[in-house]
């Protein structure tokens, strides 16, 4: 059994709102949000780590590429624990990379590097960690998407309206790149 807390973001959370307090979260009981067809679960964030890193999972079905974006001040890690995820990354010199990550594979995206991903197998799960001078962006998922108490994937995709896409990312060190094209073999010039 985990304790519940009220936080600045939720009336009910399993994550304490202040730093310096040890805590434990049972499987799947972090702060959950639906965004697109995915379920994001936050286990640690800015409040607990003094804005030094966050720790979250993303679970989703096989689907479309997530829109290209970058984090001007935040490094991001992708570690696949189930299924497969194709990671697209462009370095600061403009060279593009693409890698299919399977169970146990790891991908690192430095700050300021455009990136996107596509879940390639149903029931895929990614562990994500973000850290850097830009702080953390874990509350992006529930602010752009929809907070949920549900532990599974959304019944219908949660697609934010245009106003949220224009305003929310700026708060969380996320810059969407709608004109970005992937020139990698699986990207085929596609704009996500």
UniProtKB/TrEMBL annotation:
Domain of life: Bacteria
Location of region: Disordered: 1-21
InterPro entries per UniProt: Cupin_2, QDO-like, RmlC-like_jellyroll, RmlC_Cupin_sf
Coiled-coil ranges per UniProt: none
Domain Cupin type-2: start-end pairs: 61-119
Name of the protein: Quercetin 2,3-dioxygenase
Source organism phylogeny: Bacteria, Bacillati, Actinomycetota, Actinomycetes, Pseudonocardiales
């Amino acid at each position: 059994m985990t304790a519940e807390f009220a936080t600045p973001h939720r009336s009910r959370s399993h994550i304490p709102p202040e730093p310096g307090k040890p805590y434990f979260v049972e499987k799947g009981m972090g702060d959950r949000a639906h965004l697109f067809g995915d379920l994001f679960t936050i286990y640690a964030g800015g409040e607990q780590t003094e804005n030094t890193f966050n720790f979250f999972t993303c679970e989703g079905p096989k689907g479309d590429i997530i829109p290209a974006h970058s984090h001007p001040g935040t490094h991001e890690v992708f570690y696949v624990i189930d299924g497969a995820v194709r990671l697209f990354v462009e370095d600061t010199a403009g060279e593009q990379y693409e890698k299919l990550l399977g169970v146990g594979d790891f991908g690192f995206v430095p700050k300021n590097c455009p990136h996107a991903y596509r879940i390639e197998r149903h029931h895929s799960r990614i562990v994500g960690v973000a850290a850097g001078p830009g702080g953390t962006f874990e509350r992006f998922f529930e602010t752009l998407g929809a907070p949920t108490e549900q532990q599974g994937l959304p019944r219908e995709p949660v697609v934010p309206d245009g106003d949220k896409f224009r305003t929310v990312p700026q708060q969380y060190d996320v810059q969407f790149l709608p004109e970005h094209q992937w020139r990698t073999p699986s990207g085929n010039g596609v704009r996500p």
